[in-house]
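We give the chain.
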Amino acid sequence: MKRTTTNSYKPKPRWQVAQSLEHVDPETHRSNKETFAFYYNVLSTVKSEIMRLFPDLSYERNYMDEPVQDIPGAVHHFMTKTFYWYLSCDECQTFIIQYSFANCPFEAEIRKLLSPFSGTPFITQIRLQPDLITAFKRTARLEDSKYFSQAW
């Protein structure tokens, strides 16, 4: 006899659960909405105003549209050789922003954009190993070229 299952349950991605927590935990839901909006507002400003002045090859991937099974918490990723911007959702369904700089010509402008969220546990400056330039080159070797652009 062949064994079959009728359970077709697939867990929702973390980011989807995090966006629907309003009825369970209003405080987490509010902070998730603020972090999510803040991430995309900064990204929009960086891409539309700052990056135009310093055109550089960039990598951008939206994991909400194309989830990657090996990275269950990934939401969005943007990087150049000088700036790294990453949104993820942890196991507690909380949105977290990570960023990094490497001789970034617009670091001061971006830091000014980050100031409203500085000091919160939802945004963290990290140091990529061994460095951002190497991480960018590794990403360029491993990822599909459709995620790269220089269209400013």
